[in-house]
Amino acid sequence: MSGLFITLEGGDGSGKSTQMALLTAFLAERGETVVESREPGGTDLGLELRNIVLHRRGHIAPRAEALLYAADRAHNIATKVRPAIAEGSIVVQDRYLDSSIAYQGAGRVLDADEVRFLSTWATEGLLPDLTILLDLDPAVGRARIAGGEYDRLEEEVDEFHVRVREAYLALATAEPQRFLVLDASLPVDELAVSIRTRVSALLT
Ligand code: TYD
C-alpha cells in the first residue's frame, strides 16, 4: 500500500497555504489519511533550520543557504515523508525541491543542475506524484503579503522574484506530467476545484 506525495509551489503570496488547507480538508472528508508537511520546517530539526535560514540576521553565503534547505529536506523526507507514504498516507507538502531550483538556482544564481543534484542526493531521488504550481506576478504576490514581516527571501528585490517565477514555469514546461500550473490570480474557489479535479484523478 503506497500513498501519494503532492507538493505545492509558487511565489510568496501566491495562496499556497489557503489551497493546501482546502485540499487537505477535501482529502480528509473523503476518508484519506493526510499528512501535512512543509519545507523548510516540516520536522523539529527542520524548525530550527527554518529559523536560521529565514530569520538569521546577516549574510548567509548562497551555497550555505542551499545546503541548509537540503539538510532540512533530507531529514523531512527520511523521517516523515517516506514513512508516511509507505503507510499509505497522502502527504501534502508546502514547497519541495522545485523551490530550491527556483530560489537558490535562478534567484541566487547557483547552477540549477547542481542545486537539483543536491536535492536528489538529499532525498535519494524522491519526486512528487503531483506538483501544483500557483503562478502569480510577483508584484501581485508582494502586494498580498504587504504589512507582514518579510523573511530573508521575501525581502529580496523584484528581479529576484521575477527570476524565481520564470524558473518555476520552465520547470513545469519540462515536466508537464508532474505539474499542474494554475493562474493564482483566479478566485480561491475556482483554484480549489481545479486542484480537487486533478487530485481526484490520481486517487482512482
Ligand atoms: P514558506 O514557508 O512558503 O514561507 P511563509 O511561511 O513565510 O509563507 O517559504 C519560506 C521561504 O523559503 C520562501 O521565501 C521560499 C524559501 N525557500 C527557498 O528559498 N528554498 C527552498 O528550498 C525552500 C523549501 C524555500
Helicity, as a percent range: 55-70%
End-to-end Cα distance, whole Å, is: 14 Å
Give the spatial strand order of the biggest sheet: 2-3-1-4-5
How would you describe the oligomerization state of the chains in this entry?
single chain
Taking the sheet with the most strands, its summary is:
5 strands, parallel
Under CATH at level 1, the class stands as: Alpha Beta
CATH fourth-tier homologous superfamily: P-loop containing nucleotide triphosphate hydrolases
Number of helices in the DSSP assignment: 8
Number of strands: 5
The tally of structural domains comes to 1
User: Strand-residue fraction?
Assistant: 5-15%
Bound molecules: thymidine-5'-diphosphate
Give the C-alpha Rg. 16 Å
- The CATH architecture can be given as 3-Layer(aba) Sandwich
Tell me, briefly, the overall form.
globular
Stated plainly, the CATH topology is called: Rossmann fold
Query: What structural class results from the helix and strand content?
Result: alpha/beta
- The residue ranges in which pLDDT falls below 50 over 5 or more consecutive positions are none
